[in-house]
Amino acid sequence: MNPEKDFAPLTPNIVRALNDKLYEKRKVAALEIEKLVREFVAQNNTVQIKHVIQTLSQEFALSQHPHSRKGGLIGLAACSIALGKDSGLYLKELIEPVLTCFNDADSRLRYYACEALYNIVKVARGAVLPHFNVLFDGLSKLAADPDPNVKSGSELLDRLLKDIVTESNKFDLVSFIPLLRERIYSNNQYARQFIISWILVLESVPDINLLDYLPEILDGLFQILGDNGKEIRKMCEVVLGEFLKEIKKNPSSVKFAEMANILVIHCQTTDDLIQLTAMCWMREFIQLAGRVMLPYSSGILTAVLPCLAYDDRKKSIKEVANVCNQSLMKLVTPEDDEPDELRPGQRQAEPAPDDALPKQEGTASGGPDGSCDSSFSSSISVFTAASTERAPVTLHLDGIVQVLNCHLSDTAIGMMTRIAVLKWLYHLYIKTPRKMFRHTDSLFPILLQTLSDESDEVILKDLEVLAEIASSPAGQTDDPGPLDGPDLRASHSELQVPTPGRAGLLNTSGTKGLECSPSTPTMNSYFYKFMINLLKRFSSERKLLEVRGPFIIRQLCLLLNAENIFHSMADILLREEDLKFASTMVHALNTILLTSTELFQLRNQLKDLKTLESQNLFCCLYRSWCHNPVTTVSLCFLTQNYRHAYDLIQKFGDLEVTVDFLAEVDKLVQLIECPIFTSHPIYSSPVLARAEPTGESVTLRAPSPHITREAAEQGAGNRPGPTAHLGVVGLRSAPAAAGREEQPLLDQGPLRPAHAPAAEQRLPAALTPAPVRAQPRAAADRVAMETSRATEKIYAEWSAPSLHQMPCVSRIPSQAVRATQQAWRLAPAKGLGCLPLQWTQAALRQACPEPLCAPHCWLWLPLSLPPRLALR
Question: DSSP labels for 350-419?
Answer without folding.
Answer: PPPHHHHS---TT-----SSGGG-TTTT------BTTB-SPP-----HHHHHHHHHHHHH-TTS-HHHHH
